[in-house]
Backbone:
């Protein structure tokens, strides 16, 4: 069974069917278009921190992440110094991984620099494919794509770190660039970006 019909008669995948936090995230946020710089920088940062961990762990720590990283304002994070790194490494509310913290600060600086080329949203959304998958089972959901591979390369060329093809595919799913909601889910085709059949809306 790949979809669970809840008490509200809405079908959701197994991962979003039981935990209230994940269910709310699935219903309200995951797969909806994010086109602003701060929103994309936050999602990119959280996807990098999630690597090797469960997404529920990141969601539960999200308020602490936002407080620790100045609301993910790229200008503010780009100005972080060694004292900020030390502060972050002492913050039990977030994931205290030095490489990921350094990458987030570096990515903020790269985001600021990218404004000269049109900005992070324009670059990320330029990799939207012509069609999106129509998965019926979890096995049908890809973990990367030609577009996520190219997005990863484009970001790395511009100084970004922790932006591998799998992480970038997860970002593309999270911000609506692709729609990998299972066919039959109540969220399939709900973003306004894609139809339920996988065509651009």
Residues:
């Amino acid at each position: 069974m790949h979809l669970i019909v809840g008490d509200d008669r809405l079908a959701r995948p197994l991962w979003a069917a039981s935990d209230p936090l994940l269910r709310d995230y699935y219903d309200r946020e995951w797969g909806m278009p994010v086109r602003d710089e701060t929103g994309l920088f936050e999602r990119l940062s959280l996807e990098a921190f999630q690597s090797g961990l469960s997404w529920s762990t990141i969601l539960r720590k999200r308020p602490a992440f936002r407080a620790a990283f100045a609301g993910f304002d790229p200008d503010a994070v780009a100005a972080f110094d060694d004292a900020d790194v030390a502060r972050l490494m002492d913050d039990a509310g977030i994931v205290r991984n030095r490489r990921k913290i350094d990458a987030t600060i570096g990515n903020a600086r790269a985001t600021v620099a990218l404004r000269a080329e049109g900005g992070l949203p324009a670059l990320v959304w330029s990799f939207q494919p012509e069609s999106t998958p129509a998965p019926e089972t979890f096995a049908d959901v890809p973990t990367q794509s030609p577009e996520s591979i190219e997005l990863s390369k484009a970001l790395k060329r511009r100084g970004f770190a922790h932006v591998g093809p799998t992480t970038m595919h997860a970002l593309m799913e999270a911000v609506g660039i692709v729609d990998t909601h299972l066919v039959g889910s109540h969220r399939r085709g709900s973003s306004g970006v894609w139809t339920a059949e996988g065509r651009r809306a």
